[in-house]
Amino acid sequence: MTLSLVIPVCDDVAGARTVVAGAVGLGIFSQIILSDDGSEVPLSLADFADLSGLESLELDVLRSETCQGAGAARNLGLAQVRGSHVLFFDADDHLLPPLADLWHRLQGQMFDFCIFKHIEQRRRDAGIAGLFADDEARWQAVGARHLLSPLDSEMAPVLARIAAYPWNKIYRTDFLRDNDITCGQTLVHNDIVLHWLGFIQAQTILCADILCCEHVVGQARNHLTNRNGVERLQVFDALAEVMTRVGEFDPEWQFAFTCFYLDLLGWARERIQRQWLAEFDDRAQGLLHAQIGQRLFARINRDDPYRARRITETLIRGG
Question: What is the DSSP string of 117-152?
């Protein structure tokens, strides 16, 4: 088993250097791919020449001449992955030493992907080292309380409702390629496709109750959390790509994905500029009309009345 690391980078040489140095220090990667997403000053191997330990692995720099989004940058990197497994990461987050322990535990294991826990920087700043409360509750609900354990297939739709991050999973490379699973091509929300198609298509998922990285939300304008322009409407394109690929959902996956995107749409609506609200609401109404039939709504109303009210409010607002 060999592990490749794919890092999208856009005008953040310092962050990329920090991640590469940390990755080399862990000693578990055979290949690091830096995918330059249209940086104003092109990234080059020379930017990393002074880092020690690079001789022990393969370091590649790829480039898109224009900014396509982190999803497209990851896809560019995935096409060049030579490791049996791959971890996608971001240049502004931090790898933690327990990741090396997890990789050693995974040796000889058969799995499509292994999902691990992470530290949310905003929670750490509040004195809590771990996930946001809702995500932690979903981990607890599926019984993933061990250092490494298989996820029951019936529990996969439950855990899939956690935040759709790309960097908290080690994927088997051939699993992604055989199922034509990539990241979305939108500028924002491009991790939804990878996350959900991975969960839906996987036969074997391992869960590691180990904090392997730290997610940092900075003030950079291009960070997803800080984007509030017309690009926020791309959330509908990202959701449509999942719906197109999976066709008719199994009822449990229908329920899980609907609850997920109801929460996501609420989050996105709070962050979009007022001038785009009417179009956002119209598209949300169209999505709900197209995707939520009577049977699914009855299930949501029975098991999750709060989100049933959200559906009704969205349809009224959109109308």
Answer: EEEEHHHHTTT--S--HHHHHHHHHTT--SSSEEPP
Outline where DSSP puts E strands in the chain. 3-9, 31-37, 58-64, 85-88, 94-95, 113-120, 149-150, 169-172, 205-215
Residues 94, 165, 236: CA angle, nearest 5 degrees: 140
**Tally of domains within the chain:** 2
SS3 state at 5: strand
Residue 247: which domain range?
228-318
Residue-wise burial string across 235-254, b where 16 or more C-beta atoms lie within 10 A, e elsewhere: bbbbbbbbeeebeebeebbb
pTM: 0.92
Q: Does residue 75 contact residue 62 with C-beta atoms inside 8 Å? A: no
> Are 149 and 213 part of one and the same domain?
yes
- Give the tens place of pLDDT for each residue, 17-76: 999 999 999 999 999 999 999 999 999 999 999 998 898 899 999 999 999 999 999 999
pLDDT by residue (tens digit) across 80-92? 999 999 999 999 9
User: What is the residue type of 61?
Assistant: V
Nearest-angstrom CA–CA distance, 123 and 121 = 5
- How close are the terminal C-alpha atoms of the chain, in Å? 54
Q: Which of 225, 241, 268 is the last residue of a domain?
A: 225
Same structural domain, 221 and 264: no
Phi, psi of 109 (to 5 degrees): -85, 145
Q: What is the DSSP letter of 232?
A: G
Angle between helices 192-201 and 70-78 (to 10 degrees): 50
